[in-house]
Design goal:
- It contains 4 helices and 3 strands; from the N terminus they run E-H-E-H-E-H-H.
- The chain is of the alpha+beta class.
- The protein has a 3-stranded antiparallel sheet, covered by helices on one side.
- 6% of the residues are buried.
Length: 142
Amino acid sequence: MSSEIAIKVENLSKCYQIYDKPRDRLKQFIMPRLQRKLGQESRQYFREFWALKNVSFEVNRGETVGIIGRNGSGKSTLLQMICGTLNPTSGVIGVNGRVGALLELGSGFNPEFTGRENVYMNAAILGLTKSEVDDRFDDIAA
């Protein structure tokens, strides 16, 4: 991956297994194995829900990208996979640099702190030193 590319996503997909009843999860774990041993065709006890299917894009260093879509369109799923808190079903994600996740509006901000205090607190959580934040504070504030 080129050093000019900050994020590269190739053919990214995420499928969730949706179970109608809690016991169907146990059936899915046991029954297909048993059915195969008995020479029977194995059955699925879940339905598939594809949150993302074959998504590809690149973000170059210095670019800003917005992800827009309806509820349930896969925006948060995509962001969680990029920051590594969720594994894709298939596809490849490449990240040059650090990625921090703030996936909900207002997450990571303490209303009892000033804006400046919140910046330094979140920077510390992301592993930045005070001097690194001092150097970047005007850009962050802007």
